[in-house]
Design brief:
single chain, 355 residues, alpha/beta, D-Maltodextrin-Binding Protein, domain 2, 3 domains, 10 strands, globular
Length: 355
């Protein structure tokens, strides 16, 4: 059997471009007045041939986001649209899921190469998901908030006691935040009841119909709904969390073993993208507002509060790892504290912008 049609097409394009250049350079010397024009054409066709080669050489990665509506995941689109990942030789196929657990299923079924999920999602590694965390992307969860139906008489954290709050999935960061508030407030009974509901659409419907009192999710979404007087932001997660790893990158074990350079290129592209975002707020807001379908004014507000969340080098802080491990026990995800090697690898760290 011959190569796939797409490969044949690319090979043909390169051959045609190369032959054209070769034939042209073998032609009779041009007249003096045409020399610069002819040389320009030679350069252009050479660049065209190189362009085909570079496009063919791009490393392809399937990247999955735990949820589609989190601003902290949008650097992926910024890096794609600004050509940063392409500069690192990558072509990304990006998809989104309805929570950490579902994204982990994607990693398990080999429909993803890299996943962007929560720190608590690292527990799935110890439960057999064929992947490892490779980069601690964000620290304390300043990007997460508790929001409630705008018309309910809930104004403070104390008013949340006994209320039903939706979360994405069991074992997710959002579930842990609800339980963390209960723990910090000493609500051993009749505290916040967390209900796995999935993504934003089912959450909005459940809150609107009174099945839920509110939701734990992305801060910028809360701001948008607050402007529309649909939901009200009661608190961010920050007052209840000191040391933590909010988000990490997961990579399938097979990718780690067979294509480590692709992971290095991805992480470098990510860090270079974060550096771009920190220097270019307006462009960042323009791109990310479209990705998560929120007003630029809301995204700009979220940018100011969240741009500092990103880890400078991706290392796993020991104190934060200890808090995560304890959360696995508290949420009933694991029965005993796992070893570091079962959760993450440090072989790709540290990674800084411009390295």
């Amino acid at each position: 059997m011959g190569p796939p049609a797409r490969a044949c097409d690319k090979t043909a394009e390169m051959a045609v471009a190369g032959d054209f250049c070769n034939d042209f350079t073998k032609a009779a010397p041009p007249a003096q007045e045409e020399t610069m024009v002819q040389l320009s054409r030679v350069v252009l066709c050479m660049l065209a041939a190189l362009g085909v080669a570079n496009a063919e050489a791009a490393e392809k990665l399937r990247v999955g986001k735990a949820v589609p509506f989190a601003w902290t995941f949008t650097p992926i689109e910024v890096g794609i649209q600004t050509g940063i990942f392409a500069k690192h030789g990558l072509e990304l196929d990006v998809s989104a899921f309805g929570g950490d657990a579902r994204m982990q299923q994607g990693l398990t079924s080999d429909s993803l190469d890299i996943g962007i999920g929560s720190g608590p999602g690292m527990a799935f590694m110890a439960k057999g998901v064929p992947a490892k965390a490779v980069f601690a992307m964000a620290g304390v969860p300043r990007n997460m908030a508790v929001m409630v139906n705008y018309n309910l008489p809930i104004r403070t954290v104390d008013d949340l006691r006994g209320k039903k709050l939706g979360v994405t999935t069991a074992g997710s960061l959002t579930e842990w935040i609800g339980k963390r508030i209960n723990q910090q407030k000493g609500w051993t009974q009749n505290g916040i009841q967390v209900v796995p509901i999935g993504g934003m659409q089912p959450a909005r419907a459940a809150v609107k119909t009174g099945q839920l009192d509110g939701y734990i999710g992305a801060l910028e979404v809360g701001y948008e709904f607050e402007e529309n007087q649909e939901w009200r932001v009661i608190t961010t997660a920050t007052p209840f969390v000191q040391d933590f790893i909010t988000h990490v990158f997961f990579a399938r074990n097979e990718l780690i073993e067979k294509r480590p350079q692709a992971i290095k290129a991805f992480l470098q592209g990510w860090q270079d993208t974060i550096a771009f975002m920190k220097k270019n707020k307006d462009k960042t807001v323009e791109i990310t507002a479209k990705v998560i379908n929120l007003k630029p004014s809301v995204v700009a507000r979220g940018y100011d509060e969240q741009i500092g969340i990103f880890n400078e080098d991706g290392t796993f802080d020991p104190k934060a790892v200890a808090v995560l491990k304890q959360s696995f026990i508290e949420m009933g995800l694991l029965k005993e504290i796992p070893a570091d090697k079962d959760l993450f690898t440090t072989q790709f760290l540290p990674v800084k912008a411009g390295m």
